[in-house]
Amino acid sequence: DQVPDDDAKTFELFSAGQTTAVFQFESPGMQKILRQAKPQRLEDLVALNALYRPGPMDYIPKYIEGKFHPETITYPDPCLKDILEETYGVMVYQEQVMQVAQKIAGYSLGGADMLRRAMGKKKVEVMAAEKSKFIEGAVKNGFDAKHADEIFEIMVPFAGYGFNKSHAAAYSVVAYRTGYLKANFPAEFIAANLTNEITSAEKLPQYINEGRSMGLTITPPDVNN
Questions:
Q1: Over 80: is that where the pLDDT of 160 sits?
Q2: Which residues of 182-194 are buried (b: 16+ CB within 10 A; e: fewer)?
């Protein structure tokens, strides 16, 4: 709990994709994304954790482009900037889909959650009823019906596979703290992982190699030592 949330060495490790043995971020694909996105804050890790799944992955390039080139960021409507600004205009989280429904069409958060679930199930008749309700609410809020229709259609795919932000945040805090230990206590970190994977024919050699690539001396069992 005493790990600082802005440790430069930790973000250097993530930005270099050196995340072997780091919870949620150790796959080669995720390491490649980290090198492209160069996360500098916990919110970046949360978003990448949520985006690196089938479906949302298609939007990772847009997210990265928005991060490095703010002039390319677009919003479905200017009034949604405060909801989507932290993710560079990309709807990443289920909570964002719900907030958009609340802001555009006046949904209660309970109603917005029902809408999100309906979108996720993609039942044609349910979707048609929800769409009418959404457009009706948006028109009452002063939006043009055609524009409301467009916003609804943008929301549908995100609602279908959007990740839960609170879940992604909890995962990413654990991942960040794991990265902190690797960046700041490398010998202890690798030793703990070798102990943890002592029976794994796959992971043990991988982590021995990782330790050596980090400049650690890892000696084999030796009767004299």
A1: no
A2: bbeebeebbeebb
Crossing angle, helix 145-161 and helix 124-140, to 10 degrees? 130
Distance of CA 164 to the CA centre of its chain: 9
Residues 54-64: b if buried by 16+ CB within 10 A, e if exposed: eebeebbebbb
Sign of the four-CA dihedral 65, 70, 74, 80:
positive
Q: Are 102 and 57 in contact (CB under 8 A)?
A: no
The SS3 assignment for 163 reads strand
Per-residue pLDDT of 86-134, as tens digits, reads 999 999 998 999 999 999 999 999 999 888 888 877 777 888 888 999 9
Amino acid at 184: N
Report the amino acid identity of residue 81.
K
* Residues 63, 51 contacting (CB under 8 angstroms): yes
Mean pLDDT, the chain, whole residue set: 93
- Per-residue model confidence (pLDDT) at position 98: 93
